[in-house]
Amino acid sequence: MPMEREPLHLSEELRKRREIILRELKRRTLWFIQLRWFVPPSILAGIVAARLIGVEFAAVSLLLVAIFIFAYNVLFDFWSSKLEAGAGFRAEPIKRFTYWQVGLDYVAMFLLIHFTGGAASPLIFFFIFHVIFAAILLPPRSAYGFAGLAAAGMAVIAAAEYLHWLPHHALSFQGKTIDLAERPFHILVNLGFFTASVFITAFSTTSIMPMFRKRIQNLSELSDAVVALNNKLNALYGITRSISSTNRFEQVLDIVCSGLADTLSVQGISIKLLDPDGGELRYAAAYGLPPAFKQNKVVEVAKSPLNRRIIEGEPFVTGNLTQREMFQFGEDLAAAGFKSVLFVALIVENRVIGILGAYSLEADRFGVDEVDFFRLAAGLVAVALENAQAFEAIDKLVKERSWFMMRMAHNLRAPLTAIQSIINLVLKGDYLGGLTEDQRKYLSRVDQRSQSMLTMVNELMTLAEARNEKRRSVGERVPLRQIAGRLQEMFQPEAQGKGISFSVSMADDFPDIPGDPEMIEQMIENLVSNGIKYTNPGGRVDLNFSRPTPDWVQIQISDTGIGIPQDAMPRLFTEFFRAENAKKLQEMGTGLGLAFVKDVVNRRGGRITVQSEEGKGTTFTALLPILAPVQDPSERKGDTI
Prior knowledge:
The protein is about 55% helix and about 15% strand. The chain is of the alpha+beta class and about 650 residues long. Helix 1 runs parallel beside helix 4, helix 3 (about 60-85) runs antiparallel to helix 4 and helix 8 runs antiparallel to helix 12 (about 370-430).
């Protein structure tokens, strides 16, 4: 069936909204305690300031009220710590806590007003703040209740003082008494304005608060949605990074399935791939599903209208798997306890390659947000799978090519060696007798060509041997000091014969490095040989061993030779490639030496760079780790010919 609308769980929605409001109520209630710590010091400061300007009142009584406020705030602070630890988002403990706070604050306010002139107290309008707080923290009826309590309480205090049921504490300013107790009309007017003020405040605040609560709710919902989306995108980014770390198809499948299952908090993920003719879908991965799904299940597209619609681009989501006639194997999924499923197409460049599925044990698990996210994930997954399949196909072709070239090289080496031996015998005159000058000239050309071909065959086999996955050098160390000595002995006569200066430099305490000694020596030998070959008489070639950092060894070969053209640099390490100026100087050459060099360096976890200027010289710099590389060399790119 087509994609269903996002299921509406009214009770769940109401619970979430109630939780949002209670969370805000709880936060503001606890904030009220922090605000109250400033009240006792403010009372003390008010007493001092009033005395300084000549106002007389019952200061000791006010100090006792300040101590009372401080004491019950200590109790509220202790209560709040228990509330934070255990109340969660239950309404009653939070509301009870709020009522107690406002109630005791009213008691303190009535005492402060009584001791500062009763109905004539300048503190009377401070009740407005408590009405506002009640309107913010409690339901509207509570705000009106506290407004009525303030008005009634003030009326009781005024009447009790007028009837002398309570002692009247009049204010005195610079010796003059400020007393309204003998003026009932003024008291009534004052109380009337006060009552109107608190009820207008209650009405205004309770009218505005629903709008603010709605905005708080919307902001909280939006914030939660943004956080959830951000978490999903971060998870998707993590999956993408993990996918990019491998080109192996099975590894990509495992990373995708486990990553999406964790991100969506579902119990199953499947990947079904279309066969080339589009007639069948086969389970390539079935994470969390019964093993039989991957082993035996094949979906015939012609018999599954649902899968055809998904392949056409329509996502499918349901929270009720009792409608089993909609797709094949629905009974098996229901038997495994799955209640909700979500399917989207895997599309690469407008071409469907399969279907991505998610499975949950919960009913109505997938909504619109999950569908949108899953479609986004499917796009990335499809590209990753396509790339992995392409990589493995190319890898297979390259291995077949490598195998063919190895067989060809192996089969050619024996006859070429025989040809060389026979030609040498003929040239010496030991086999067919003396040769004419023309015969010797033509045979020498044949000898050069066969020698060049034999060199290429040998280099091909050396390169193949370096890339042989069965060849391992675990635990072997490369004695670079001994290699440096052998290379100097090997190339010094050749360099002197050509009129070239050749030097080797290395520190006395130079360390050995992990690797295959034969391959490392051959790699350095190739670079030094090239340097001497392409440097004209009077030039120089330098081989330098150094440690730029404690963890790396640097092998640098510099020459003052013909250099490398800039347009040849991108292809320099490509098999069978030779720069044009190298061909002019040395007609014979295979173009395999630098490919071998780069391969050896890469397989040892190192890197190689080259700097060159045509006509001035070239510097090759190889960096190799002193510790064994963590990465398995067989997993490196470019491992086959």
